[in-house]
Amino acid sequence: MAGGLGYLAWDERQTGDGGKSVDLSAADEVQEVLRVTYSERHFEVLENYCYDCHMDGMEEGGVNLDAYPSMAEVQADPELWARLRKQLEMGLMPPPDEEQPKAEERAQLVSWIDDAVFPVNPLVPDPGPGPYRRLNRSEYANTIRDLLGVEIAVADFLPPDDSSGGFDNAASAVTLTDSHLRAYLAAAEQALGEAIVVGPMPWPHRLSRADAWSGGGKREGESWLLFTNGKVSWEMDGLEPGRYLFEALLGASQAGDELAKARLRVGEQFSEAVEIKSGRFSGQMVRMEIKVDAPRIIGEVEFLNDFYNKDEKPGRRDRNLFILGMRLVGPLDQAPPKKPETHLRIFNVADPEAPQKDQALAIFQAFAQRAFRREVELSEMEGYLTFIEQTEALPHGFEEGIKRGLTAILLSPEFLIRGEPTGGSLAYGRSWISEKSLAERMSYFLWSSMPDEVLMKRVQEGELRGDLAGELRRMIHDPKFEAFTADFAGQWLGLRDLEQLRFDRKAYPEANDLLLADLRQESELLFEEVFRKNLPVTEFVRADYAFLNSRLASHYGLEWKGGDDQANDEFRKVKLPSRRRGVLTQGAILALNSEPTRTSPVLRGKWVLESLLGQAPPPPPGDIPPLSASAKSDKKMSHREQLELHRSRPDCAACHRLMDPIGLALENYDATGAWRTEDHGLTIDAATTLPSGQELAGPEDLLGWLAENREEVFVKNLASKLLSFALGRQIEYYDQPAIDEIYRRAAADGFKSHTLLLAVIESIPMQMKRRPAPSPQLSQSP
After folding, report:
1. Closest CA to 665 of 708, 699, 709, 703
2. Do 216 and 231 form a contact (C-beta atoms < 8 A)?
3. Closest CA to 760 of 710, 726, 712
4. Residue 94 and residue 49 in contact, taking contact as beta carbons nearer than 8 Å
5. Smallest Cα–Cα separation from 678: which of 670, 688, 689?
6. CA dist 121 to 22, 28, 716, 734, Å?
7. In Å, what is the CA distance from 167 to each residue of 129, 285, 527?
8. What angle do CA 409, 411, 414 make, to 5 degrees?
9. pLDDT tens sequence across 114-153
10. I need a labelling partner for 342 at 20 to 30 A (CA). Which of 114, 158, 272, 542 fits?
């Protein structure tokens, strides 16, 4: 929303202290101009085209324009005028069967709304709020990985994140509840349990389950049942000579006058008979030390005293032995294993000769500085010494206390929450964020994780802002940039949703998990190609190539130039025919915007408007049935004919005339993205007419229209989505000068992807923040 007159209202003069003051006379003058143009020109436009439905007492859709006779009433209701602006700009109103305003009338009214209701000043841009928000699942997993060096399955702990504005890192979506805190506690304990070894380092071991055993009885799930005297064997090979512990976890169902008995055997070495007191599921560990002098051995568990008496009471008739697990530990006569690198990274920051209190403070401080992503004073860590005091009587209490203290750090809001304090508006001015905050914004934007040591070193040396382009290139070529594909492309293009996509197997028997995985990889490889190689982002709508393997080439009906079986599974760059270009004709996008049994022109048209052009139509009225329910029972009816019936309602027609032509032009692609010329015996007619009157003969014309006529709209929409993802909030009207500047810089360099990303990082919303409101000062009595 970049207007003209509204900028004059912000005619500002420098003051002696470097602040800004507004020339109120100029502002009053602009307000008068806006009032006059509204009353003498724009209100007349509203009367000419909106009168029958929204004036003279009519309130179609709850909108009564009689309530806005003057500027004051207009400016008091920005929410309604934002809706009207969108309807006018997209041509949704007036309805298609009503007289339409001229293009210049529509554009002038939209521009006036920008100036009157949403004035922005490009000379003093508003950076917007820097909202506090918790780490989402992806950010949490990546941060734990980079902080501790371990990877955990966060989906086992944390619930899925909500989405706002298309992204799940938005502050309005990632709230923090009690259930989240419990989940974060479980995740932190799991991660630290893998990173820290409390007590002596366990010896190397081999763990085996029932699927690797043989013998009498029978397998029952993950255990083995011996219901008569007999044995279960586990064959092990590749062993070094030495001493080992052979261990078995055993349980029993008891009967008769004695407990179940078992023993372990390896060749001629065997244990004494052991009474198994544990029940079927609890398990009792039985072990024996053995000497191994051959690379292959067979370990055996023997059941020694079976019992059965049908005359006993139920539950006491049958004595059985259950083998729940077997393990070989060692060799024990080699040097004890060292603590893992993850453990040493935490503990080696402290002087081992120092008192334990000083060691603990050093460990907590070093860890907190990385976890909190800021400098931490030693005094801030004093409270964490409580955990050392609580565990000092326990075996290996120091390590246990450190582990508990680090768990508390991982539950701290300073770890889980990101953001900077800001004011609610520009009332208190704006300021540059620190380089530390900028590094954090960059790392979570591009890596969905914490800044690395290189980035923080640039911050400490005060060199980050001086070489943002160089740092951007380094971060793009780091393996962690894969998170940008997974998180940004996964949500912008919808690729994450492929995991839940299921087609009707009768309609599309080829649409199995392997095909869906190939489709996702095709889209991800194009995304990475554009950003890794600094290609123009217009490749997303223009690219005449794709990354395919033999399966996808066959699915698309394209020629595949040989190779062995392994090479056929590998993705390679393939030249495309003219009917396929960019992401829009990729199978992943076409499949995601289809129904389980058929294509959906409505969903496909809506996706193009929303994801590529940033012009999402409003949601349909609540009483509109789905297409399948509103269509007649004639199965020979084409999609085009069904849609004509579906949009016969006037309140549907406005949106459908935007979506349907785009979707109908894509009807040659079936629900899985394969090319077709017929649908259930009917020849597909992909010719269509856009609301502008431009005729399209089919998909090739649509692709050309997007590339040639909607380039600026596409790039500005992509810039808006990138900025929204980077900031963790939805884009508002005051961000438009930043979007315009990002576009200008990208256009000047041929829309290169690195230039676009750099322009986002160097934009005012990324570099600055609103100043927080001053703290109230309490007056003191004399």
Report:
1. 699
2. yes
3. 726
4. yes
5. 670
6. 11, 16, 19, 8
7. 17, 49, 17
8. 70
9. 888 888 877 778 898 888 889 999 999 999 999 999 999 9
10. 158
